[in-house]
Every structure is written in structure tokens, then in C-alpha cells.
Design brief:
The chain has 155 residues and is of the alpha+beta class. Helices cover 33% and strands 27% of the residues.
Length: 155
Amino acid sequence: MNRAVRANLEHLRPWMEWAAEAPTRARTAELTRAGTAAWEAGTDFMYLADLDDAPGRVVGAFGLHGRIGPGALEIGYWVAARHVGRGIATAAAGALTEAALALPGIARVEIRCDQANGASAAVPRKLGYRLDRVTEAAARAPGETGRQLVWVKER
């Protein structure tokens, strides 16, 4: 994971505030422990993707996050620069959408991205999400406009 993030910093930096600096191995280990604890608590579920022709090489990360309130989960994702446009984010987000909506008590899934991030916004559009609202927020990463698109799919 650390190697994949470091190799994709320039690609991720415009959209991910956590990509402002290259993570150390210690920081990656710390985040992995926190992710494991969140998984065990049932609040956050992170997945790494690789490809059959390159097992073990991370080409993206995807998650179901319980940070938007009861009855809902948010999907987050990133894909390595050299794999953008191959349908990886759409396939992973589609699988996570199905899994989330099959969970007891989950009636809504959201995908959020900055208005300027066209590649990220294409994913929920392709999956049949509806654009629910545009919210104003402080830009947290250099490429952001501060206008966050909130895409929703409901059971």
C-alpha cells in the first residue's frame, strides 16, 4: 500500500488531502492498524485491489465508510494513475454498492467528490446513482473547488 500511494502522489494530491506528503512506512502501518480496528468495530471497511496479471501490486483502494450517519454508508476510492479509465473504480464501487445495500439497516449509499474531479464523478453516474445535492465546503486539496457533489443510491 505504501509503495502504491508513494508512486501515485502527484496523481492523488489534487483530490486527496492525505496525499499532501508521502507517507512513511510507520504511518502506513499506523493507518493499517486503525483500519483493522474500524473493520472489527463494523464502522469502516477498506479494500485494496490488484490485478490477476500483477497479484500483490495495489492498483487502487476502496472503502465503505460509516461516517454519514445511521442507515447509510459512503463509498470512497482511488485508482493508480496508470490504471485510470479501465473500469476498475466503476467495478469496485458497483460491487461495494451491492454489498452495502444488502446489509441489514443500510438503505442509502453515497459517493462524494469535488465538482472538478470529472473522473471520480463519472463512477456514480455510470452506476445509476442520482445527483442528490451540491454542497459548499472548504477545499481540502489543491484541485478542489469546494463544491462537493453528493451522489445517492437507495434501496
